[in-house]
């Protein structure tokens, strides 16, 4: 276990029931951090109540937590998210840029890709990471000690795939931004790293299957194909879980990673090796 007692973490895109954001927020709380949970809405899907449920889950661990709605793609919202965190806790020690655009009409060949869909993916995945990092880094530079910024990229930020033009472009961009920030913020004691997961079994898997499924196959059937393919493609024999990303984030947020910055940690169970 890592000691994050007294630290304050801000995790974006953390309102989903089975998402990476929720897993990271809860794990950081288990390690001792108080947590600011962000998502674009405080409403969940179906019986899941969304962001308020994550806040209550963290409080049940004996930590403090608040939920703040807002879009990471809008600069005014980003400033409001940061301001809410500072108003409640007075500091932000850890930023996890996890918010991501949902798969949809962007998962088509480049020649068929609508400009609006390309912009939608870039605005959340890349611009959102930029805006949040800029806002929180300004705070981190204003006080000592520094802090930790953890960006969620993807193995698709390392290698391009057909029909993933917007997504790959955004995640490649996140890695470039990570390296730039790492160099700029290192003199101020701020470590900046990225996590690059392969397919993770979350709610998003269903949306991806819906966008990519071939004719004659249901979304449920193709989702099962995707999961099976990911599991068999890994030497470890299983698909990634949100908790795998949370464990990696906890390490990067801790003092155990003090000499790590500008890196992209591949989280693929060995299916992707560079």
Could you please describe the fold and organization of this structure?
By secondary structure, this protein is of the alpha/beta class. It has one domain: Rossmann fold. It has helices spanning 20-30, 51-60, 75-89, 115-141, 165-185, 203-212, 219-232, 242-253, and strands at 8-11, 34-39, 65-69, 94-97, 147-152, 190-197, 264-267. Strands 3-2-1-4-5-6-7 form a seven-stranded parallel sheet, sandwiched between helices. Helix 2 links the parallel strand 2 (34-39) and strand 3 (65-69).
Give the secondary structure arrangement, pairings included.
Blueprint: E1 8-11, H1 20-30, E2 34-39, H2 51-60, E3 65-69, H3 75-89, E4 94-97, H4 115-141, E5 147-152, H5 165-185, E6 190-197, H6 203-212, H7 219-232, H8 242-253, E7 264-267
Parallel strand pairs: 1-2, 1-4, 2-3, 4-5, 5-6, 6-7
Give the second-level CATH assignment, the architecture.
3-Layer(aba) Sandwich
Q: Segments where pLDDT lies below 50 for 5+ residues?
A: none
Largest sheet: 7 strands, parallel
CATH superfamily descriptor = NAD(P)-binding Rossmann-like Domain
Contiguous helical run count: 8
Features:
274 residues; 8 helices; alpha/beta; globular; Rossmann fold
């Amino acid at each position: 276990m890592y000691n994050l007692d007294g630290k304050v973490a801000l995790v974006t895109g953390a309102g989903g029931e089975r998402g990476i954001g929720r897993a990271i927020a809860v794990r950081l709380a288990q390690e001792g951090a108080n947590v600011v949970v962000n998502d674009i809405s405080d409403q969940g899907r179906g019986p899941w109540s969304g962001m308020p449920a994550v806040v209550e889950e963290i409080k049940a661990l004996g930590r403090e937590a608040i939920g703040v709605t807002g879009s990471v793609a809008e600069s005014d919202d980003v400033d409001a998210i940061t301001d809410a965190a500072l108003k409640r806790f007075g500091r932000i020690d850890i930023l996890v840029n996890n918010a991501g655009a949902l798969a949809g009409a962007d998962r088509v060949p480049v020649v068929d890709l609508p400009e609006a869909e390309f912009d939608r993916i870039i605005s959340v995945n890349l611009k959102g990471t930029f805006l949040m990092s800029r806002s929180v880094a300004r705070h981190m530079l204003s006080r000592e000690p520094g802090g930790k910024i953890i960006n969620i990229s993807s193995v698709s930020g390392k290698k391009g795939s057909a029909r993933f033009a917007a997504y790959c472009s955004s995640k490649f961009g996140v890695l470039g931004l990570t390296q730039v920030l790492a160099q700029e913020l290192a003199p101020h004691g701020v470590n900046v790293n990225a996590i690059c997961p392969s397919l993770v079994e979350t709610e998003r898997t269903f949306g991806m299957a819906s966008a990519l499924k071939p004719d004659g196959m249901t979304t449920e059937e193709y989702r099962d194909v995707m999961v099976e393919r990911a599991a068999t493609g890994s030497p470890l024999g299983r698909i990634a879980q949100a908790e795998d990303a949370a464990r990696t984030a906890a390490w990067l947020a801790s003092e155990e990673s003090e000499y790590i910055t500008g890196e992209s940690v591949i989280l693929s169970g060995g299916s992707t090796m560079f």
